[in-house]
Amino acid sequence: MRTRLTLVLAGAALLVLAVVGVHAVSELPAAGDVPHPYGARAVAAAFGHATANAVMSVTLDQRGFDTLGEELVLLAAAVGTVLLLRELAAETREKTEHGYGPEDVFEALRLVGYVLLPVTLLVGGYIVLHGHLSPGGGFQGGTVLATGLYLAYLAADYRALDRLRPPGVLDATEGLGAFAYVAIGVSGLLAGSGFLADWLPHGTLGKPLSAGTVPLLNLAVGVEVGSAFVLVVGKFLEQALLAPDDVPEEG
Amino acid sequence: MSDWILGLLLVLTAVTATAVVLTRDPGRQAAVLSAYGLVLAMTMVALAAPDVALSQVGVGTAAVPLIVVLAIARCHRETGRGSRGDQDEDR
Fold first, then answer.
1. Which of A41, A150, A58, A119 is nearest to B52 (CA)?
2. What is the Cα–Cα distance from A215 to A137, expressed in whole angstroms?
3. Is this structure's pTM higher than 0.90?
4. pLDDT tens digit sequence for B13-71
5. Do A250 and B76 touch (CB under 8 A)?
6. Which of B66, B74, B80 sits opposite A249 (nearest CB)?
7. Which residues contact B30 (CB under 8 A, 6 or more apart)?
8. Chain A, window 187-226: residues with a beta carbon less than 8 angstroms from a chain B beta carbon
9. Which domain holds residue A202?
10. Cβ pair B88, B57 in contact under 8 A
């Protein structure tokens, strides 16, 4: 009886969702080069500040305040995760005992890790620093940089990863990244423009030194996102691998 | 031509999303979720949104499945210990 009621309710809800969804989507403008009032104005404003990547101009210049909110949400989430997964006094672990050391990893996987580690770090840095010119930016580049760090873990072992992320440094850089974003925003106030205003010289469109504060904000975002990613995944890795007893049977 | 590719990608998105839901084992589900994330990223590229696609690859294809797999590994060890008669609390 109850299952039947659930099915009827779920069916009715799905029907309403389908009708409303189709109605909403059918009214959307087509994707692609169709002119749109907001798109035209946003692109004009982006080029006005010599920002070749209009998407980055919207996220870090025209709507920089929204991105600040995102940054702080990410900071809070990372701090919360690190705090929840911290080691309690009662569960001190043997830091040296863990599975998946060099002898547990396939040779081919290790080779791929070694080859891809420098490439990934280079690509990540490029994506962060060219965010105002080409698709990418601090968030995307930060995640690529963090992924690259975990290739070191795949290629070698946990201790190699530990050498690549000295304790305490990433905790500091994560906070510093968020602080730098706010500081760049306040610098706009001090320069007499407004909070997060793009007040620096804009330079030439398409050149590495252009778009005013956008590359600086991208750098701050990249540092914060990369650090947060490494910290959070590192905590999960610790939970999964550093065991007080034997190596897990599975997974 | 590009409409044809977009249509194919949208169908693939629906297929892989259904596959994620129908995969019951969490470990396998993480792998299927990763494949779904990749298809979603390609769809975003086809829709001329490479910025979002990059984020999608980083978060949806790499980070989320990785965290899920690590959490599963941790849970497997917990249950492995519990079955040997340790006094771990039940969850």
1. A58
2. 8
3. no
4. 999 999 999 998 888 999 999 999 999 999 999 888 888 898 888 888 888 888 888 88
5. yes
6. B80
7. B65, B68, B69, B72
8. none
9. 53-86+97-241
10. no
